[in-house]
Write a structure and sequence with these properties.
alpha+beta, 33% strand, Alpha-Beta Plaits, 2 helices
């Protein structure tokens, strides 16, 4: 399944917060999560993350692991074009 996470940090970004998040990403990649893109953004959200997970439960667990540092809005993404492994047939 494909997901988009819209992230807002709860505190000011620090080296410690970045280091913890980097460690979490590395741990997730050893498991069932595949990150397709991580972007810093300007505006309402600080970061946009596009990732794959086998199901909603795995995606939710990933988000809960970061709940002390981030507010995360997670969307299930379904490509609109045919021929995509996630899109309509």
């Amino acid at each position: 399944m494909l997901f988009i996470a819209l992230v807002k940090f709860k505190t000011q970004l620090s080296k410690e917060v970045v280091a913890q998040n980097t460690k979490d990403i590395e741990d997730d990649m050893k498991r069932e999560i595949s990150f397709l893109g991580i972007y810093w953004t300007l505006g309402k959200y600080d970061t946009v993350v596009i990732f794959e997970a086998p199901n909603e439960r795995v995606a939710m667990n990933m988000m809960l692991k970061r709940a002390d540092r981030m507010e995360i809005e997670t969307l299930v993404a379904v490509p609109a074009h045919k021929g995509s492994p996630y899109g309509p047939e």
